[in-house]
Amino acid sequence: MRLLLIEDEPDSLMGMKKAIDSLYNVEVELHTSNNAEDAREVIFKHYPELIITDIMLPGISGLDLIEEVVNKDYQPKVIIVSGFDDFEYARRSIRFGAVDYLLKPYSTKEFTEKVNRTLSMIKEEKELLQYTEQQKTFAEIGTRSMRDNYLVEFCLKRTPLEEHLYHRLCLWNIDWIVNKSFSLLIFDVNGYPDGKPFTEENQLKTFVIGNIMQDVIQDHMHSLLFKDTKNRWVLLTTIEDAEEIARSIHKKVKEYQKIELAIGISTKVSSFEEMHAAYSSTLKEFQISSLTNREDYVKSNHLMSTDLTTANHLASLVINKDEESIRQVVKVFFQQVILLDGLESRDDITRKTLNYLSQILASISEKTSKELKDIPMSVWEKVDECTTLEEYEEVLSEYLTSVGHEVSTHATNSIIERAIQIIHSNYMENLSLQMIADELSLHPVWLSQLFKKETGQTYMDFLTETRINKAKTLLRETSMKVYEIAESVGYQNLQHFGTIFKKRTSQTPKEYRYGK
């Protein structure tokens, strides 16, 4: 316990110090001073919990010093020592919270009793504060535990949103999962699709992963982290770009802890009742991801969704001659065949493989308008001879790569040309990449990559540039009001439009209109 003695008379200070040193029931970190200036430095450096000061000091008085340093954030216990029996001194002492008043001359016994009583008071207050904080912490832990148990239950079975549940969500400040669209993500150490063993090392890994995740999402208001029944981290978030937040978490965990993560990401969930379905589909993606060795998360992130192993998506990769992605998707497809479909018979896998290949060829023909031959007999024979998943993967990947070299590369350019046409025709609407991908029968992740590759811009940059260029034309060539122009090019928020416009042109819309 920190204690400061302030006394300008050397004998009195020495006597007080000896009395303090004689205390046996409490450890004291003792500081002394014989003037207010030095005492002020000690106070602001050590913030003693008890200050014993004489009133009459060189320079300013002890009362003035205490009144100066005491505030709402620092309220030490104070014992005033005085050689004057003046009520005004006592009144001022009481006003700033002095707990005792010692009138000279006093006995050592009287002094030590007052000090002991005050130190005991400080100790009791500390213990009470600590107890209160502990109870508060226990209550928070209990509340969080109850909340997380409910969330796990929502994930494991479809739960109707009844009134009592909504009140609980409001109480926990997570009613946004009812009022807003959100994504659900699952994270854990790679290589454990069904949950890692319960060991001290794995518990530590879970802890550090959670800390890093919490650090990444701390600035996002509507984001919530909890653990499922297999000790995997589940993230609910309204963040628009869930893949970007997952990428950031993956990068930091690998950089700081050298841990490779498996990740599953859901599509946007628009209602509370969809949480179970979102969790179930995301868990399947996570399990596939967990069986996939990934050095580059950005590439493999495309492969975590079951939808991305569809024949339609793989056909797009073949047209684009993306050999590495073809191999990755084929690998995930076969993992999915075993993990999700539960196929174990070689005949079943062969039949599934050939059906899949037929769908891919049909999709390629539709996208390129080029009639492809049926599956060559040589490929049939190779597939029929396969005995391991690796052999199936090799045969399918090699054949699809060869098909990619046969089809016209013009198909890729025509896809982007069509995407640009859609943007030019619909830029004024709430146009998302998903909408364009649906129109073109492509997966949005692949379309995003292809768009950047062909145009040198991201989809959002291109859409924004299109809108701003149209706005510039309207500002110079029409008398439309700025808010009308903003709405006509797809911005419902005038302030947001102004911010984007200035960022792109270094001028406000009004400055641009008048050529300033």
From TrEMBL:
Modified residue annotations for 4-aspartylphosphate: D54
**Residues covered by the HTH araC/xylS-type domain:** 417-515
Molecular function via GO? DNA-binding transcription factor activity; sequence-specific DNA binding
Top-level taxon of origin: Bacteria
Q: Which positions fall inside the Response regulatory domain? A: 2-119
Pfam families hit by this protein: HTH_18, Response_reg
Keywords noted in UniProt = DNA-binding, Phosphoprotein, Transcription, Transcription regulation
* CDD domains listed in its UniProt record: REC_YesN-like (cd17536)
Q: Name one GO biological process term.
A: phosphorelay signal transduction system
Protein name in the entry: Response regulator
